[in-house]
Every structure is written in structure tokens, then in C-alpha cells.
């Protein structure tokens, strides 16, 4: 089972034999989810009936998103505290299905489960490479399997602006045509975005859109050059381009490279904030979830004092529209950041250069922090030096074991667990072009992030160890294959065919 449940008790009695006569009863949405999973895994459709051996219900008791699962020889019962809890219980049930010499069975077990953290996310960068709506939906389906409940969409960056907005149509007319490496660009219409948000919600996933500001804004400057400074081409930017064989950024020209930190907005011009009000207001109206992400990372082309002014004004605009600000941890240095803003920490498991202090500043302001330590849960890192795609800057390659062996409560000294909102695994897409690429880098390491976000603390149970995790991941190979997930068959995992 991935992620590991809070409590599991083996009943020590006969299992439930899942035959073609088994019927599924109860909540129709949950029943539909289970039939889909069982059909993919077993190639057999089980009937949904008013009464059945597999009962799926919501009883309204217990913690949010929690569920109780019980299996014996007579049948299976999954009871959710709410519809999300029932949905997650169904995911666990599908993972318990076993093929044996005597047929298909579900072991006798009793599970009481609830998430450790309320925010459990995955980020998809659609700015460096743009992915069509079916691909984004596939990512949502994969996240739901692992009980993740937030999809962070990185919609804008130097290489492209990916959401059409009626108030500022030039953003996509001029800023969406390219991607890294000269690949085709693209953008989502408002109807596309609504479709993604609704599809995610049907799987109990909240969409968190990001407009990255005030850096990572070269594409914005193509559309509205009056609010953007010329690129700040530092020796580091030039050296990066030489290593990667990329041209440096130039004002008025689309950027297809992968350097960061060279772009900035005009911090003291009213036109900048007029644009932000249009963009953030229209995006807020499109987004039913509580969060708007305003970036704030790697603004090396912005003077620190100007950065503080910008974060204060931009976060106030988000608050005006009734949304909670999310920002990368650098924004914690801005004293005027809107109170209650959520910080997202992307430093290392062992913080460097005062990154932890900036993250703690969010908690000092009465808010909480999302943990995305780059050397543990950045899915775009290579597994090892030989990995076909991916990067290595976050302390070198990230093995599956390293992606697992970290403890959220120990990352930022002085940050109490109560100040941790959750865990998110970002997938930046400089080297990622297809769903197969996404799968290769995300699986199985996304399972590590999911377990850090959902399950009890590291070492608190016999399941929360690397040795247990690698065995449980191996057991998911059949289900992942059945669902078409092109996961990386890491040699760290004892996949059944390699035993």
C-alpha cells in the first residue's frame, strides 16, 4: 500500500475471494472509481448493485479525508468520513488486490487511515514545455492514485505564457509561441483551464495556478514590454548558456533556453500593477480553490528593496480578490507580505544560505509552509548519472532511496510540525516533452513524496522505513502497468520480474 496507512491490522483469517460474482454497492461515484481500477487490473467489469459484497459508504464521522477499510471472507467494507476519504479508501482497496494460484483475493485486514498533512501536492511546469489537456488529466489521475490532493500548475515563465486571459490577450498572442529548445509552445483557453480544474475536483484535487513574478517574466515582457526591464545578462547567465549551447536572452525576442534569474518587471510603475490586477483578478475568478501562487523565486534581476515592494503590492492584490497567497520561500524576506500567505520551501533537506529563515518567516506571519526540498522531491532530477532525461543541480542525482529518506518535521529547524501545511513534489520540464517522460521521472519517486505527505512520521511504524517502502512500491508495478504508467524500473526496487 502506497502511501502507508496510519494503522493496519492483519485479521489473521481467510481472505475475501474476488470472483466474477462479486457486486459493488453504495456510493455511486466511489463504485465507478473502483470498477475502473479493477477493470484495468483484472480485465473484468464488476456489477454495481443496490447490495453487494463490497460496500462503499460515507458516514460523516472522523477526521477530514479519513477512511476505514475492513476485509474478511464475507466481504469488504470501506467507510469514508467524507467523499474524499471514501475515494482514498477505494485507492487503498485496489492496491490490496492480489493474484494468487488460487484466484484473485483481498487479504483480511482492518485499516484506519487519515492524512498527516492537509496539503499533498504535485506541480507540473507547463511553461518550459506545454502539455495538452489530456496529458494534464493523466497527471491528475496519477496523483489521485497516491492520495495527492493539490495540482500546482506553473503557468508562466521566461519561455512561455500558457493561459489565455480576455483582459490581456497579448500574453498568449505574443508570449505563448515557444518552449525550451525551440519546441512548439501553446496555451490553454479559459475553457481548457475550467476543464482541468473540474476534472481535478472530481478526483478531490484542488488546482493551484502560478503566475511567476517578478522574475521568470520574459514571456510577459514580449507581450507588454512597457512593464518589463531589459534582461539582466550576468556572467552566470552567460556561462550557463555557453555550457548548454543556448543563446542569451534578448529584449523583444522569445527565449528558448534554460537560464534563470535574468528577467524583472518595472517595480515602481503603476502600469505593472494595473496588469497584475487584470491578470490575478481574472485568474481568481476562474479558480474555485483558495490559493493563487505568485512565484517570487530567483528574482536575481530585481533589487532586493524593489523585490520587497513588489511582493507587498502583489500579495495585497491577491488578498483583495479573496485568495490566499502562495509564494516560494524567497518572498518570506519581504516584510510587507500579506499576512497569512503560504510559503513554499524549495531549498535542500539541509538548508543553505538562510533559506530556512525565509521559510520560517511565513510561520512568524501566522501562516504555514509547504515543503518541496529540491534534493528529495524535485521530480526533474536524474535518478543517476545515466538517466536519459533530467537535471542534476540539486545535490546531484536523486535516487529513489534519497527521495524517500527524509523527514518533513526535521527540514527547517525551529519550524513546528503545526506550521507545516504539507508536501509538494514539483516537476520542472526543461527536459520533459511527453507523458512518458513525466512518468519516467515521477514514478516511483512521486510515491515517496506522497508517503511523506500522508503517512505517519519516518520511523514511527514498521511501514515507514525504506526497506518496507521498496517492497510496497514493487507490489504496485502490476497496477501501474495496467493503468499505462511508464514508470522507471529502478534497480533499487525489487520488481517482481527481477526476483
What tags apply to this protein structure?
Chitobiase, domain 2, seven-stranded mixed sheet, 33% helix, elongated, eight-stranded parallel beta barrel, 15 helices, 2 domains, 20 strands, 499 residues, alpha/beta, TIM Barrel
Map the helices and strands:
Elements lengths: L6 E4 L5 E2 L6 E3 L1 H15 L5 E2 L4 E5 L8 E6 L2 E6 L2 H14 L1 E3 L2 E4 L2 E5 L5 E7 L7 H13 L4 E5 L1 E2 L2 E2 L8 H6 L14 H13 L3 E8 L4 H6 L11 H10 L25 H17 L4 E5 L8 H17 L3 E5 L13 E4 L9 H10 L4 E3 L2 H4 L22 H5 L15 E8 L7 H8 L2 H10 L11 H17 L17
Parallel strand pairs: 3-4, 3-5, 5-7, 11-12, 11-20, 12-15, 15-16, 16-17, 17-18, 18-19, 19-20
Antiparallel strand pairs: 1-10, 2-9, 6-7, 6-10, 8-9, 13-14
Helix pairs in contact: 1-2, 3-5, 8-9
Strand residue content: 15-25%
What's the count of strands? 20
Overall residue-averaged pLDDT value: 96
Question: How far apart are the termini?
Answer: 19 Å
The major sheet is characterized as: 8 strands, parallel, barrel
Keywords: Glycosidase, Hydrolase
Enzyme class: hydrolase
Protein name: beta-N-acetylhexosaminidase
Domain Glycoside hydrolase family 20 catalytic: 117-456
Amino acid at each position: 500500500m502506497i502511501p502507508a496507512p496510519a494503522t493496519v491490522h492483519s485479521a489473521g483469517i481467510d481472505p475475501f475471494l474476488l470472483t466474477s460474482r462479486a457486486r459493488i454497492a453504495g456510493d455511486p461515484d466511489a463504485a465507478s472509481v473502483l470498477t475502473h481500477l479493477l477493470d484495468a487490473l483484472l480485465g473484468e467489469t464488476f456489477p454495481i448493485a443496490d447490495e453487494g459484497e463490497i460496500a462503499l459508504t460515507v458516514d460523516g464521522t472522523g477526521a477530514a479525508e479519513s477512511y476505514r477499510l475492513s476485509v474478511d471472507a464475507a466481504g469488504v467494507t470501506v467507510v469514508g468520513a467524507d467523499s474524499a476519504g471514501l475515494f482514498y479508501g477505494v485507492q487503498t482497496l485496489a492496491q490490496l488486490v492480489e493474484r494468487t494460484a488460487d484466484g484473485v483475493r483481498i487479504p483480511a485486514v482492518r485499516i484506519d487511515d487519515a492524512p498527516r498533512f492537509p496539503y499533498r501536492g504535485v506541480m507540473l511546469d507547463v511553461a518550459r514545455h506545454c502539455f495538452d489537456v489530456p496529458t494534464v488529466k493523466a497527471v491528475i489521475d496519477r496523483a489521485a492514485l497516491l492520495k495527492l490532493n493539490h495540482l500546482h500548475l506553473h503557468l508562466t515563465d521566461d519561455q512561455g505564457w500558457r493561459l489565455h486571459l480576455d483582459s490581456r490577450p497579448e500574453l498568449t498572442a505574443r508570449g505563448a509561441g515557444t518552449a525550451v529548445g525551440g519546441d512548439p509552445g501553446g496555451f490553454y483557453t479559459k475553457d481548457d483551464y475550467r476543464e482541468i480544474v473540474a476534472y481535478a475536483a472530481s478526483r478531490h484535487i484542488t488546482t493551484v495556478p502560478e503566475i511567476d513574478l517578478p522574475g521568470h517574466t520574459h514571456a510577459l515582457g514580449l507581450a507588454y514590454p512597457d512593464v518589463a526591464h531589459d534582461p539582466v545578462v550576468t556572467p552566470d547567465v552567460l556561462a550557463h548558456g555557453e555550457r548548454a549551447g543556448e543563446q542569451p536572452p534578448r529584449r523583444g525576442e522569445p527565449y528558448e533556453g534554460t537560464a534563470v534569474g535574468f528577467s524583472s518587471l518595472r517595480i515602481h510603475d503603476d502600469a505593472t500593477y494595473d496588469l497584475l490586477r487584470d491578470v490575478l483578478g481574472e485568474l481568481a475568478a476562474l479558480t474555485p480553490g483558495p490559493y493563487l501562487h505568485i512565484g517570487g523565486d530567483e528574482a536575481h534581476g530585481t533589487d532586493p528593496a524593489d523585490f520587497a515592494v513588489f511582493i507587498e503590492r502583489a500579495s495585497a492584490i491577491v488578498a483583495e480578490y479573496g485568495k490566499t497567497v502562495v509564494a516560494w520561500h524567497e518572498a518570506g524576506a519581504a516584510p510587507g507580505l500579506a499576512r497569512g500567505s503560504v510559503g513554499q520551501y524549495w531549498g535542500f533537506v539541509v538548508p543553505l544560505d538562510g533559506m530556512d529563515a525565509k521559510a520560517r518567516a511565513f510561520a512568524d506571519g501566522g501562516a504555514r509552509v509547504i515543503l518541496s526540498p529540491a534534493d528529495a522531491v524535485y521530480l526533474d532530477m536524474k535518478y543517476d548519472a545515466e538517466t536519459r532525461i533530467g537535471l542534476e543541480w540539486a545535490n546531484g542525482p536523486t535516487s529513489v532511496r534519497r527521495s524517500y529518506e527524509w523527514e518533513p518535521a526535521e527540514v527547517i529547524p525551529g519550524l513546528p510540525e503545526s506550521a507545516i501545511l504539507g508536501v509538494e513534489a514539483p516537476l520542472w520540464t526543461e527536459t520533459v516533452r511527453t507523458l512518458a517522460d513525466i512518468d519516467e521521472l515521477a514514478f516511483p519517486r512521486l510515491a515517496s513524496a506522497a508517503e511523506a505527505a500522508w503517512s505517519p512520521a519516518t520511523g514511527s511504524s514498521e511501514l515507514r522505513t525504506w526497506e518496507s517502502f521498496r517492497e510496497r512500491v514493487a507490489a504496485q508495478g502490476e497496477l501501474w502497468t495496467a493503468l499505462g504508467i511508464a514508470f522507471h524500473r529502478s534497480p533499487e526496487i525489487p520488481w517482481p520480474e527481477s526476483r
